[in-house]
């Protein structure tokens, strides 16, 4: 028997699980007989033995289970936690797999690293290069010639237009628009955080937090 684990039983993990189940149950996956479980870190309390009909295992239980093969995907939003967990799992015990929604669209000549989560209605067009453990949430897209690093997170509805470079551990908030620059690529530096609804038309330095301007109705009253 094979055991496929979704690491993280929180909100995003519970969103990713049905996508993984849908893929495993499809005729072309060849994994219909594998068991799909939630996996939580050893020091994380397990409040119940099942979540949404799937067993919940500690990491030790997952890695020591007597099975022919183990695969895992990390459905945790925090990119530093994703990297720590990915580096802590021995390659001889378990290997990563990507979760791709049935209605995700990916076109020509894209290179996408291991452990990705490509959610419903996400879209990657052509000639993009994407690193490990990329989270592309629902209704987000990446267009031509973009280069995206490792452990990058797109919240829902991100619009990443052509020739953008996004370095490792960047978080892009819901509804962000990243402009296609005609005079050279926009570069979003390592560890930057782009707040919900921002429009990015120039490069962002590493570690910077960018927030959109407040609408007048949201501004604090004078005095």
TrEMBL record:
InterPro entries: AcTrfase_PglD-like, PglD_N, Trans_hexapeptide_repeat, Trimer_LpxA-like_sf
Residues the record marks as active site: 144
Pfam families in alphabetical order: PglD_N (PF17836)
Residues that bind substrate: 77
Site residues by UniProt (Increases basicity of active site His): 145
Domain PglD N-terminal: 6-88
Family under the similarity heading: Belongs to the transferase hexapeptide repeat family.
Name of the protein in question: GDP-perosamine N-acetyltransferase
């Amino acid at each position: 028997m094979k055991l496929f684990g979704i690491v993280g039983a929180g909100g995003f993990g519970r969103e990713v699980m049905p996508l993984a189940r849908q893929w495993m149950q499809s005729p072309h996956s060849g994994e219909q007989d594998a068991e799909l479980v939630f996996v939580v870190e050893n020091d994380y309390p397990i409040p119940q033995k099942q979540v949404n009909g799937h067993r919940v295992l500690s990491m030790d239980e997952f890695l020591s289970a007597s099975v022919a093969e183990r695969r895992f995907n990390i459905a945790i939003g925090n990119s530093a936690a994703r990297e720590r967990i990915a580096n802590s799992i021995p390659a001889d015990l378990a290997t990563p797999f990507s979760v791709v929604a049935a209605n995700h669209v990916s076109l020509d000549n894209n290179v996408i690293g291991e452990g990705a989560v490509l959610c419903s209605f996400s879209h990657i067009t052509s000639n993009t290069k994407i690193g490990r453990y990329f989270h592309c949430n629902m209704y987000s897209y990446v267009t031509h010639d973009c280069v995206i690093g490792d452990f990058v997170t797109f919240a829902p509805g991100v619009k990443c237009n052509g020739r953008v470079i996004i370095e490792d551990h960047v978080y892009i908030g819901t509804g962000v628009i990243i402009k296609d620059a005609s005079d050279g690529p926009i570069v979003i530096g390592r560890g930057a955080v782009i707040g919900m609804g921002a429009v990015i038309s120039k490069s962002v330095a590493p570690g910077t937090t960018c927030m959109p301007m407040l609408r007048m109705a949201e501004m604090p009253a004078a005095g």
